[in-house]
Amino acid sequence: MPRTPILSASGIRTAALGIIDRHGLDGLSMRKLAAELGVQAASLYGHVATKDDLLHDLAGEILEKVDVTGFADGDWRHGLTMCARSYRAALAEHPNIVPFLAYGPAHREASLRRLDALHGGLVAAGWSRREATMIAASLMYLVFGAALSSFSSGFSEDQALYRDRYPNLDKAHLLPAVAEELDHDSFELALAAFVDGLALRLPR
């Protein structure tokens, strides 16, 4: 007789994330997840209460890859830069779940621990608590803006669309071919400008 697959929390998360990666957030349901795992939907509820709880578990797993250790040496610029780069990289691995993550830390332990380290590192460096909150929020805008869209991929490769009507965009058709490189460099430019600009505002 066929055996019922043994379920585990990690296996459920892996399968759920696979569905989201392939079909987007709307493609995930407890019924589809159960079918993916070869079990009945009722079997899942011994491990996760609701789909929303499962999404929070997935978010926590992804956010474990965000590195906030750079604040430990007291260099807030280094900490902020490491946090931003690792955050963008973590989101890039699973872009379809980014809209769920973009709503803020909610009650997610992994997110709150990292936010606590970021906030503490900034305050220790001399920023006020209000400024630290604003910097953390601004960093999220930067990271999630980069994760939610690709500026370069949004152009057509048809040169005729731009050449005659938009003379300053006569090379825009070349952007999709170098989208990954240009998006990376654009993020780095924005991040450097953000951190350098903040440094000028820090009270001495």
From TrEMBL:
One of its GO terms (biological process) is negative regulation of DNA-templated transcription. Residues 6-66 form the HTH tetR-type domain. SUPFAM superfamilies: Homeodomain-like (SSF46689), Tetracyclin repressor-like, C-terminal domain (SSF48498). It comes from the Bacteria. It holds the Pfam family TetR_N. Keywords: DNA-binding, Repressor, Transcription, Transcription regulation. Residues 29-48 bind DNA. One of its GO terms (molecular function) is transcription cis-regulatory region binding. This is Transcriptional regulator, TetR family.
